[in-house]
Amino acid sequence: MAAIVKAAQREHWADKYGARVAAVLSNKADAPGLALARELGLATDALDHKAFASREAFDTALMQRIDAYDQPGEPVLVVLAGFMRILSDSFVNHYAGRLVNIHPSLLPAFAGLNTHQRAIEAGCKVAGATVHLVTPELDHGPILAQAVVPVLPGDTAQTLGARVLAQEHLMYPRVIAGSLQNDL
Hints:
Structural class: alpha/beta
Distance between the termini: 20 Å
CATH class: Alpha Beta
Order of helices and strands: HHEHEHEHEHEEH
Number of helices: 7
Oligomer: single chain
Strand content: 15-25%
């Protein structure tokens, strides 16, 4: 999230694409990303998923919060960055074609959790990250970009994860900027 916000400010996305980072939302009020977003002058919002009886009720409330930031005439993307909740089909369909996520593997390999450890255990020679459009099927949307890193002898999930994360921070802002420029 921080890499995206900083790229948007540094590269003047508002001037280039008519787009801005409107707000940073989280399902955790103490998320470090919210504090950073406030420091960078962005609107923030937190909505505790535990306060809702169902995933659908939470997602409906989240959609209402997100849609409140929508400005007419601006390209609208909902960018997931560190949001570790499975979203309902109704949420995903509401933002179809505009909902983007990054996943720490070379999809379609290793959807879900523990991707780095699973890549090491499978004997992969390379790993990486994928930016994709979100669809109702978890981690299976159309791939927008991928970044590859080597799996080195002696790698742990942490060391591999750190190299993948460095590539995520470079790739995700570039993909978003390209998507805004090309209007997905």
